[in-house]
Amino acid sequence: MSRRWTLGVGCGLVAALATFALVSAYDVPPPIARILAPPDTEGSARVELTLTNEGDDASARLHQAVVNVRDRLEARGRDFAVSSYGDEIVVELDADSEAEARDALEALTPTAALELIVVADGSAYMERLAQHVAEDTGAQAVGIAVDTEQWRHDESGQVRSDTYLTGPSSDVLEDYLHALWRADPALAPESGHAILLGQREAHTGATTWRTYYVIDENHLPPSSVAAARVDFNPMNNKPEVLVELDAEGGRAFGDLTAEIIGRKLAMVLDGRVTMAPVVQAPIRGGSVLITVGGDSYDDMQRKADDLVATLRAGAVSAPLTIQKFDYVGAAAGSGTRLALRAGFALLVGLAAFGLGFGLGLVLEPASAG
Fold first, then answer.
1. How far apart are CA 122 and CA 163, in angstroms?
2. pTM of the model
3. What is the chain's alpha carbon radius of gyration, rounded to the nearest angstrom?
């Protein structure tokens, strides 16, 4: 065999074997890592995300969303790769099951936007809406009812009240209200107001949903969350999330609570009311406590941990929507990655063969002379 063939074949074999061994034994940067990772017992998921609304700053918002997605997955200790193509974000991560993969991806879609919104109690509009609902057999058929609550401000003794609707789920309430407003626009919320939904624990212990009629204005400046951690209620030992605001957010929170003493302040996360306590006095400490619901203690703990990780990663500038989801099981995923690693090593080997063969062409004339 001529020298050029000997050098070409030798270089190609050494390069291919070395490449295959390296990509099987060591981590390599994404996106190659996701393709060439060693076989394991986990499957892998691939999801495509898009921003749900666009604008002139879509490119900047997409870049920020990629950063937030990475931060959220890192906070949860996931093995992942994130990249963007055009106006889409592509996420690949390992998971033991499809259910685990979907659960992890659920944390990517919330905006993590925390808002402070004043409840419009004693509203004549809600009285009209409640009267209509009370007489509507269609509302009763789907489990929607009317309720009223009262509270007293400790220092002044002033009594306030609020009328609201209840339903078995958020979907039932939303579907009913949207259909009602289409049929009778006069029953839609007044200008500058909105109806938000939040969970409510019934006397039976079951979780239902209720409405909050609010003044549609957020009083918390953007990116005001400085820190977040899981805390535990000393009365029932249930997990809660304690949010520390930055200086600007703390001042805004203190000024707002000083203005609305005796009224309810809704703490809203991703458009849902997490709690709406009565403001008894100005709150100047710059801390906000958020309660979390759940079917069990473990479920509440998981939701609290996820919320903390999401808040720490920061708010996404616009909601993300899952456009496509693919999950590959452990066996298929391992076999595919093994084949791709071998193919990658073969390409490197062919390149090395070409270099070795070329080197042989240069050396052969020299040795012949």
1. 7
2. 0.60
3. 29
